[in-house]
Amino acid sequence: MSDPDLKSLLEKQTAVCLQNQDLQKEQQAQQKAFQDLVKTVTAKPIIDNKEFLLEPLANTMVEFHYDPDSEDGLFDVCKVRLLLRQLDTRAHSRYANFILQKKPQDNDFEEFVTKLKEIFSR
Description:
The protein has helices at about 5-45, 50-60, 75-85, 90-100, 110-120. It is mostly helical. It comes from Culex quinquefasciatus (Southern house mosquito).
């Protein structure tokens, strides 16, 4: 091989090496960006635990409509529903059979507790 041929070959190899270096730098930058993204996504929980716990409770509550003439009726309904959710299957069935024709929201909280005491104190 002559000097010009060697020189041309060396220039081509140098160009290829520079391209490879550029590609490696680009790949490293992409890997770093991906790692940063993974850290960001895994660092924050998708739903806060408190929000996760409150969601089922919020789903059981009725829509609030302000009525100045009512006396905490909404809150009684919510308390009744929450207390009903704490009953096991057998206790819930006994209560349901006892009130058969009434809906839980038709009872105020005090009446509900009184009925539960009546049913389960036997």
